[in-house]
Amino acid sequence: MIGKIDPKSGLNLKDLLQVPFSRTGNSSNFQSLLEEKLDLSKPLELIAIRLLNQTIDALLSMGGGSEGTERFILPSFPFDPPLKPPMAVNPPVSGVSNNLQEKRGIDPIIEEASRTYGVEPGLIRAVIQVESGGNPLAVSPAGAQGLMQLMPATGTELGARNPFDPAQNVMAGTRYLRQLLDRYRGNVRLALAAYNWGMGNLERRPDAMPKETQRYIAKVENIYNSRREILQTAV
Q1: How many CB atoms neighbour CB 216 within 10 A?
Q2: Per-residue pLDDT for the chain (235 aa), expressed as one digit of tens each?
Q3: How far apart (Å, rounded) are the C-alpha atoms in residues 136 and 147?
Q4: Is 66 left (phi over 0), alpha (psi -120 to 50) or beta?
Q5: b/e map of 164-191 (b: 16 or more CB within 10 Å)?
Q6: Lower CB density within 10 Å: C or N end of the chain?
Q7: Looking at the annotation, which residues are catalytic?
């Protein structure tokens, strides 16, 4: 499930400095870790991204993402090799190929979204599997809709007029994934955390990440990495 997009919600150093962070075995906190790693010769964005990733890695290493990470029965999508960087960035969802709706199944939609936004098809499939189990009519208790579980306001902002239309939903969800991957310099784990929990939550209080989001990251990574293993074995 993804929340409302706030493209102006950048990484706030003041907020980050106020967030406590505990690590097993010592009394270090997020503020001291940030001050320790701060290097004025480097862009703050890169430093903040690295620290966010370290925070999430620490949480997951404590076992927060271990529950419910059993091996999934993979859906019957053919696995495609990773794509190179995007060939087009954020074209409108209305630009979906006219014949896409006429093709049966989800694979052509995923392939089109992958080509359009430069997101690996395996990652799109893993997100769909965890978000909705491949059900285009899925609705969460919070109101998220469709294959990639778009909140109504978010889906509208991303150009999905009908969130239950598989093509519109997948194109919009993949477009948002692309935005998150760009924001976090290609860090898939941070992109997944923001997709599930929201950019503002992740950037203001990363150490407070809920168990639900930790399990979400682990599940998506499990499916995604399993597919990559299949590809490598086939080669």
Answers
A1: 23
A2: 655 444 444 444 444 444 444 444 444 455 555 454 444 343 337 888 898 999 999 999 887 554 443 333 333 333 333 333 333 344 445 445 444 444 468 999 999 999 999 999 999 999 999 999 999 999 999 999 999 999 999 999 999 999 999 999 999 999 999 999 988 989 999 999 999 999 889 988 999 999 999 999 999 999 999 877 666 565 5
A3: 5
A4: alpha
A5: bbbbbbbbbbbbbbbbbbbbbeebbbbb
A6: C
A7: 131
Q: What is the largest distance, in Å, between two alpha-carbon atoms of the chain?
A: 58
**3-state secondary structure (DSSP) of residue 16:** helix
Residue 61's identity, in one-letter code, is S
Residue type, 85: P
Full-prediction pTM beyond 0.85? no
